[in-house]
Amino acid sequence: MKIARFSHRGAINFGIVDDDALVVLNGDPMFAGFDTTGERVPLTEATLLAPVIPRSKVVCVGKNYADHAAEMGGEAPAEPLLFLKPNTSVIGPGDRIVRPPQSNRVDFEGELAVVIGSVAKNVAAADAASVIFGYTIGNDVTARDLQKTDGQWARAKGFDTFCPLGPVIETEFDLGAGTVETRLNGVLKQSAPLTDMIHSVAEIIAYASAVFTLLPGDVILTGTPAGIEPMESGDTVEIEIAGIGVLSNPFV
Ligand code: MG
Description:
- The chain is mainly beta.
- The protein folds into 2 domains: 2-48, SH3 type barrels; 58-250, Fumarylacetoacetase-like, C-terminal domain (Fumarylacetoacetate hydrolase, domain 2, Alpha-Beta Complex).
- Helix content is 12%, strand content 38%.
- The protein contains 5 helices and 18 strands.
- The chain has helices spanning 29-32, 66-71, 144-150, 154-158, 201-209; strands at residues 2-8, 11-18, 21-25, 36-42, 47-49, 58-62, 81-85, 90-91, 106-107, 110-116, 132-139, 142-143, 163-170, 179-184, 187-193, 219-221, 236-241, 245-250.
- The strands form 3 sheets. Strands 1, 2, 3, 4, 5, 6, 7, 8, 10, 11, 13 and 16 form a 12-stranded mixed sheet that branches. Strands 15-14-17-18 form a 4-stranded antiparallel sheet, with no helix packed on it. Strands 9-12 form a two-stranded antiparallel sheet.
- The chain is globular and about 55 Å long.
- Bound molecules: magnesium ion.
- Magnesium ion binds at residues 60, 109, 111, 140, 221, 223-224.
- The site of magnesium ion has 7 residues, from loops.
């Protein structure tokens, strides 16, 4: 089931994608279940928004694909390398990623995003599925120059607009069959099976929930494969995970 958050005629609602329409839900399904209002909104009349605004944080994993760790000039760390993006960095499908004046190099990073559905603390990897609401797509936008100069990544990864999410949350996604692909102006730049992740989604949830309490609506970005590149003004970056959709954002 694909869940969208959308605006239509001035109202913001959640809906289930049903062919070319949205079946409108009573409230946020993460908390209110899947009661429908009976209303249907044509997809062409709706503006899709980020399908979730993280309740407290976006937890990210760095260097979780060996080929990306290599292109960054090193080996992947033995344990997941965690960092955070603030929820104020989140934007939705079609929203503009904006280059901050502090940076001369802003890169895309296409990633699978996990949406947490219940309070999670010290969750065993074997139980990780029970705290997952669903999956969406994330772009871990990075000011690469500031990442190098700062050492710490809070600024380089945390600017407003640096966390596009969407287009929808798929609640029944098959991780084993997924591939993440990133296109810049239609040209394929990144392509990797999700099974290339060094630390699996379940392992990441176990590792992260031993550090932070994860709240419903928190998001985990699971790392990017090789092929990162800077964006130039006027570019459009599209990240596709078959079975979830395509997250497209212009860069200015
Ligand atoms: Mg990343």
